[in-house]
Give the backbone structure.
Amino acid sequence: MNRNNFFSYLKKTLQRRIDNQLMLHGLPSDLDLSLTPDYKEKMPIFAKHREIYKWLSEFANNKNCSVLEIGARKVQIPKEFQWMNFIPECNYTGFDVLPGENVDVVGDAHNLHEHFKPSTFDVVVSLAVFEHLAMPWLVAEEVTKVLKVGGYVAIETHFSFSEHELPWHFFQFNNRGLEILFNPLLGFEIIDSGMSNPIVGRFSNFASDYLKGQPIGNLYCHSSIIAKKIKEPIPDFSWDKVLTQINSMYPPPEKG
């Protein structure tokens, strides 16, 4: 290698190291694309972060539309992203496990049927709540009980995010996980789902030696789903039956 080639190689190597440091130390840039190259394909169409209400406003903003929000208590959501700015005319019910501002009914989402009659609501929406449910599959069953046929459920939760509101933080979901919860056997048809808000990550200096500093790709903060209840659940619904359907999705083993 001659002198000019050596310095060119050294310059490229140093620049690559600088780029990697910039990418992994909190300075957003186009370099982030290398860790989430298909973020546009994963992004939902209607159910994007802080845009679900905009989608709902097209058909739910009228007094004949009954909307239930699970986890309605005002905690951190800025006022401009709250329901009253998008669907102020709807027949709204705020439901939460604790009393507080914006809460109309206090109760446990695992037992919605104890608080509402069957087929009460046209829309059930829940934002940043499903990660805090001890048994979210049971809540999915409760949602279909109180939702009318032809109604919609809109859920946003986290796929990659820090622990919060401990000890009541139990799960993280990608959109596939949400699709399993709101499945055809419960009467649902998926309208939109996906993940949004890519995150750049790496293993810290306190991780196992072979992982220290390694970049982590395909991290997304939010996962979301919009599903339509097109029929009542099958009479003998069980999660074992859902599991049978999931097993059929596994790819066949590669032939050796």
In short: The chain has one domain: 37-234. The mean pLDDT is 88.
